[in-house]
Amino acid sequence: MNGPFEKLRRQDGVSRRDVVVGATLVGGALLVGCSPADLMSMGSKVEPGAFGPFIRIDPDGAVTVLSKHIEFGQGNHAGLAAIVAEELDADWSRVKVIHAPANAKLYGNATAGIQLTGGSSAISNSWEQLRKAGAGARAMFVQAAASRWNVPAGEITVKDGVVSGGGKSAGFGDLIADAAKVTPPEAPTLKDPKTFSLIGTDRVRRKDSLAKSTGAARYTQDVQLPNMLVAVVAHAPRFGAVVKGFNADDAKKTPGVVDVFEIPTGVAVVADTTYAARMGREALKVEWDEGKAETRSSSTIAQQWRDIAAGKGPSDLKWEAFDSRGDAAAASAGKGASVFETTYDFPYLAHATMEPMNCVAIVDGSKVKLIHGSQAQTLDQMNAAKIVKTLPGSVEVETLFAGGSFGRRANFPSDYVAECVTIAHKVGKGRPVKLVWTREDDMQAGFFRPLVHHAVRVTLDKDGYPATWRHRIVTQSIMKGSPMPMKGPDQTAIEGTAGSPYLKATPVVDAQLALPEGGVPVLWWRSVGATHTAFVMEHTIDQLALKAGKDPVDYRRTLYAKAGAQRHLAALNLAVEKAGPAPAAGFTRGVAVHESFGSVVAQVAEVRLVDGRPRVGRVVTAIDCGVAVSPDQVAAQMEGGTCFGLSAALYGEITLTDGKVDQSNFDTYRVLRMNEAPTVETYIVPSGNPPSGVGEPGTPVIAPAVANALLALSRTPTTRLPFVRAGA
User: Fold this and answer.
1) Which of 567, 547, 560, 543 shows the shortest CA–CA distance to 505?
2) Which of 459, 443, 405, 367 is nearest to 660 (CA)?
């Protein structure tokens, strides 16, 4: 899933930059006393109902939960609805979920402050909010019944949408008019989790499965509107290039093509159908100005990153310390058998969603409507408003299902959305425009998981445990240019290394980050920094255990005890216990443990070599994610995240030759096939803590678990991914 948005919150309230951005969006008016959410919601006509912004109750008593989070495959809607239904005591069979409208003030992410879905935060940041919403609505029904029946409120009970007391009973529908007049309590009483009858049970299953199985679920590509045009865009073959000139004569002669014109990101071809638009683009002749384009090959960039880590980088490149303890010089000193040194290289990765980027936009004067799978409604509103010069809240967003994202649909410039709005603005007169990216467009346009290099140097004490740890990370910054700047080092590059229990257990630590410039557009990718930091930390630990002559599981247990990492220890112990005493015949085991998005995941992977390539048979997963609202969906996310991470670890790699992306579709960007998918068993560590992330934490652990199994098998470490090189 998606980026560490909890890190994006403003740390000192509304900054001067916030005010400037807000003033720009509202036409230059200086608005004193407005919060960012106020600014970004200006112009919105969305109003909450009688039961608040998250709950609607129909006259027949059916309950609708409005989800501020998009559903793009992760299954969060069932869990979000269950939180409301539990506190409301609604009839679960009569609860449905829809996407909420766009309004940052009503539906903003509780930690990021804007409306978006990411950072595996849908359940965690909605937990208290939706519990209070459900409990508040329940209290309104109780008070309405108590007044109608002249029965003390304390004697009223609610179960499955039926309110009872004093020998009488009524459904939500019978009481809705009276309940809607009750003032909602500011601090409703929440249930004791011990009394939950829905949350944490297998009753909480997805409510969208039937619609998605029958084709009734609506995606952007399904949208058909009267008089709608379809647009495709000719993008530059190299990042940073711009249009120098173009000849549209042949394109305009293509049957069905309506218009061809330049936009900031290329040349748009607008037609009556997708086919006509694509044929028109093929007939288009574009000359590109590549004076500021990225022309390096990915191999060149990787070598530059390695040089920087080795101290051969530009003199003006800044290193930032993100963990420092003890005498830093000691981490670079010492020689001999107690010293361990290694480096790791990680390639660019594509998100490769099953549904490429697409959007429908309608622009009529200053009125804008977007219809698409919006992962970051507020960002899309802001960027659309800038183009049309209107208020952000005046941009209506109808959020649809999306066929995956893994972070791709939420980016600061709203790239594909901005393209669609720009084209629709040019077309004008309220005529709908559907922008369609082909798989090739999607694969080659970015944004990518950054290319990353790590250099690690560890000295061991007399017992074989880390005494000093020197760590260098070199990569592009994802957060550069963010409208929500952070203080300190870019957390998206260091999370998983910063705060690691292994560093906490080491007396001397010198960990630093360098962020050189790069022309390749980069973005968070499911589990973000953990995509590489988990591998580095976990595979390094196994190599240290091997060097010390110790069992890797026991080695971790000792380090966790030193660091006070009880959750890591509990997850590790549960995974090892459930894995059993020995792997299947012909398989070797590898272990990895990692914390991301507030959850700790431990995996035991059983691996064998088939024609020299790793084949994973069984993966035993233990997760501590706080209260598991939907255990079935937790298991599904562990399965999906494991396969997603394994796919990238085995095959994932975007390469550039002279600045041009080499891969274009799934024939050149290989993904895991069904017959390669492992059997994933999931076990949940019992916890009374609030829920933490589930959508992403299963992704980063599988790669180091497989690498550690290969290390146990051959004593050969893995210093770069993917395991299988293209063409091999």
Assistant:
1) 560
2) 443
**Which CATH class, in words, describes the domain spanning 1-216?**
alpha beta
User: What tokens appear for 571 in the block?
Assistant: 């997850």
Statement: 220-292+357-436 belongs to CATH 3.30.365.10: yes
Three-state SS annotation for 205-216: CCCCHHHHHHCC
CB 279 within 8 A of CB 263: no
φ and ψ of 86, to 5 deg:
-60, -50
Cα 650 off chain centre by: 21
Q: Cβ atoms within 10 A of the Cβ of 393, count? A: 24
Beta bridge partners of 523: none
Please state the domain extents for the chain: 1-216, 220-292+357-436, 300-348+448-714
| Domain range 300-348+448-714, CATH class | alpha beta
Query: Fold match between 1-216 and 300-348+448-714?
Result: yes
DSSP sequence for 643-705? HHHHHHHHH--B-EETTEE---STTTS----GGGPPEEEEEEPP--SPP---TTTTSSSHHHH
Give me the residues paired with residue 95 across strands: 63
Q: Along the chain (728 residues), what's the average pLDDT of each consecutive run of 10 residues?
A: 44 36 41 67 87 97 97 96 98 98 94 91 96 98 98 97 97 97 96 97 96 96 98 98 98 98 98 98 98 98 98 94 93 89 98 98 96 97 97 96 97 97 97 98 97 98 98 96 80 97 98 97 98 98 98 98 98 98 95 98 98 97 98 98 98 98 97 97 97 98 98 97 83
Measure the CA–CA gap between 169 and 149, rounded to whole angstroms: 10
φ and ψ of 60, to 5 deg: -90, 5
In terms of pTM, does the model score above 0.70?
Answer: yes
